[in-house]
Amino acid sequence: MPSELRYWTVLDPAYRVVVEADDFLLYHRLGRDGAESTSQAYASSLALFFDWAASIHKPWRESAPYLGRFVYWLQHHRPDRVRAGRTDVVRGARRVNGILAAVRSFFRHAAAVGQLDPKVLAVVYDSFESYSVHVTEQAGHPLRARVRHRLSEPASPVLNAAGEDIGGLIRAANSARDRFIVIAMWRMGLRRGELVGLRRSDVHFVPDASQLGCGFRSTHLHVVRRTNPNGAWAKSRRQRVVPADWLTVQAYDQYIAERDRVDPGGRSDFVLVNLFAAPVGTPMRPGGINELLARLSSRAQLKRPVHPHMLRHSFATNVAEHGGTADVLKELLGHAWISSSEVYLHPSPERLRAVVEQVPSPREPGEKQ
Ligand SMILES: [Zn+2]
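^ thats the input. predicted complex w/ zinc ion below
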């Protein structure tokens, strides 16, 4: 688009834009301030939906009664393996549910703008009339989704980076910048996009930021959502403040000293810039963080490579294990829904064992009184 904003769309087999899908995707990006990554996920979900509708020879508007078949098709259909065995599952429950949610969102929009008969929504939702769909479909809301097509998802444990692995990453880093990246994600739980989107003006690592026009005490930084030229994107709509501990502040100071040495007079307001590869002084890309962690993981000879989100999980788990409640986690992590924060409150196997071992056991047979 004319501004720096990008969105995704859907083309039919003749490379024509599917007008209704395009209209929905523009609405999502502009009318709802949706993320580009979500735009992409929605577009690829809708492309699958149109492919499937074509495969059953139905216009998409008339396909809702057959969505049950769509669920099955999603689980088993892959374009590059047309004759896949019937039992091969090519998409898991979580992925299928995500695609269905995108299609429902598209249906709601189409009904709202008069492209679809609203009665069709009764096929997609149970008791549609008595519920406000916009409110009820959000995960974690007390009024749970009343959707008619959904697979049950297996509960997956949160994948953390172990403490010794993080130590290995920090030791494997051969620059202050790379150490700061690992420490900032581990000690502040920043998402990858939030980290590379940071500006120097967001960092208030001073005891009193009131001179900077900020009312928060002690060292902290601000996570702000912007459209950035490096593709970085803070997922949360709401700005948030994350306190920084001395370890993070020290790592930051060392990094800034290194940056001033390697790139003297560097003008970029981005915190993280390329220092060891051209073009020096330009903002790092989000993908650069993954590449860095892969490199450090291999240099540290970790059994399981650490991904950016695992450091965020470790932060959240640390906070939860040191008394962080759901509301604190939600605020620190910038979650939209408290259900996302509650995941971290599940006790670890170690805590379960510790509690069970506290329970007095009966004496073994033959044991003396
Ligand atoms: Zn501040």
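The pocket of zinc ion is lined by residues 204, 209, 214, 216, 220, 222 (CB under 6 Å).
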